[in-house]
Amino acid sequence: MISSTENPVTHTVSHSELPILDFHAIEFYVGNAKQAAYFYNKLFGFDIVAYRGPETGYREAASYLLKQNNIRLVLTAGLSPEHPAVQHVERHGDGIKDISFLVSNLEEAYHLAIQRGALEEQQPTILTDESGRIAKATIGAYGDTTHTFVQMDEYKGPYEPGFKPHHVPSPSTGLKRIDHIVANVEPGKMEAWVEFYQRVFGFYTLCHFDEKDISTQYSALVSKVMANRSGSIKLPINEPAPGLGKSQIQEYLDYYHAPGVQHIAIATEDILSTVSALRQNGLELMTVPDAYYQDLAKRVGTIQESMSELAKLGILVDRDEEGYLLQIFTQPVQDRPTVFFEIIQRQGSGGFGKGNFKALFEAIERDQQRRGNL
């Protein structure tokens, strides 16, 4: 459940849900997959576990699979000017091309999606090798982003046929699973994509936020969170709202040149240890003014974590009627001010940190000012 303070939406859904079990992987298109893999390996603590490229007989692109607990990242760089990854990077910079979902029935998921109006990107395809068999199919989403449905059928390989083991370990930072993935879309387009996930996926609107919830004196946004009934998938969708300055959403759209994934929220069970490790590794995280912590205990009440340690690490806290959560956000992880990550620990709360929106926006606006984009 979500707190009533986060504007729950209770309307019914007219379409049955697609048979989606969980997030499967997130594929980035990048300019240099080897260097990007090193970044996520050394700073985030992902193990590099598999590779596909010329050395394995695949001459179109180089891809590295990175894994930490239940999180899979695939980093792909094209090897010729004609490859879609090269064209994607030329327009967007490094960014997220595909969000894939594990499904229990690929044919059902794909054909229902197409019947409901989804754009066909790749028809169902069977891939096999000595490790077994997988089936996959892809549909279009916002901007150049796609969604791939994957049915594993007890596949024993590291990722999918064509990938070979390539083990470069890293000390884990305690990142456990994908909590939610956030999209930015153009002004006036949020409702259209909300309707897309309702109609095509059978998802429902878990909660929504308007410009009164998410604003400062300079900028604002509106957001709706789409989710499946089991709670394994949560996909917030943001659009900019009018303000005195340029919102973080509009800045993203200006630099990404299209709608796309703004950030990936990753859950941890011990945010103090995780953030300590990330900072020690050299990952750049957003800074929070000391004033944020002056009345934090009064605002959120008793929590298990040390307030002084939270302040030292710059971790935000929010409480709703179900519990509390702790969260922190990275700086953008590429040169353009586009994709970043959120680290989140839930202590009962199913919300999204509504009480932290003002502090978060002000932190982002300070960074925008330094870039000359506010």
Structural overview:
The chain is an alpha+beta fold and 374 residues long. It folds into 2 domains: 4-10 and 174-371, 2,3-Dihydroxybiphenyl 1,2-Dioxygenase, domain 1 (Roll); 20-168, 2,3-Dihydroxybiphenyl 1,2-Dioxygenase, domain 1, CATH 3.10.180. Helices cover 24% and strands 35% of the residues. β2 (47-52) and β3 (61-68) form a beta hairpin. Mean pLDDT is 90; it is low at 1-13.
Helix and strand layout, with pairings?
Blueprint: E1 20-29, H1 33-44, E2 47-52, E3 61-68, E4 71-78, H2 84-92, E5 95-103, H3 106-115, E6 120-129, E7 132-140, E8 146-151, E9 164-168, E10 175-184, H4 190-199, E11 204-209, E12 220-227, E13 234-241, H5 248-256, E14 260-268, H6 271-281, H7 296-300, H8 307-313, E15 316-320, E16 323-329, E17 340-347, H9 357-371
Parallel strand pairs: 1-4, 5-8, 10-13, 14-17
Antiparallel strand pairs: 1-5, 2-3, 2-9, 3-4, 6-7, 7-8, 10-14, 11-12, 12-13, 15-16, 16-17
**Whole-number total of structural domains:** 2
Instruction: Report strand order across the widest sheet.
Output: 6-7-8-5-1-4-3-2-9
What is the share of helical residues? 10-25%
Gyration radius, in Å? 20 Å
- The backbone outline, from C-alpha atoms, is globular
Query: In terms of structural class, how would the helical and strand content be classed?
Result: alpha+beta
Low-confidence stretches: 1-13
Sketch the major β-sheet. Answer: 9 strands, mixed
The CATH superfamily of the largest domain is known as 2,3-Dihydroxybiphenyl 1,2-Dioxygenase, domain 1
Distance between the termini: 36 Å
Order of helices and strands: EHEEEHEHEEEEEHEEEHEHHHEEEH
- The CATH topology of the largest domain is given as 2,3-Dihydroxybiphenyl 1,2-Dioxygenase, domain 1
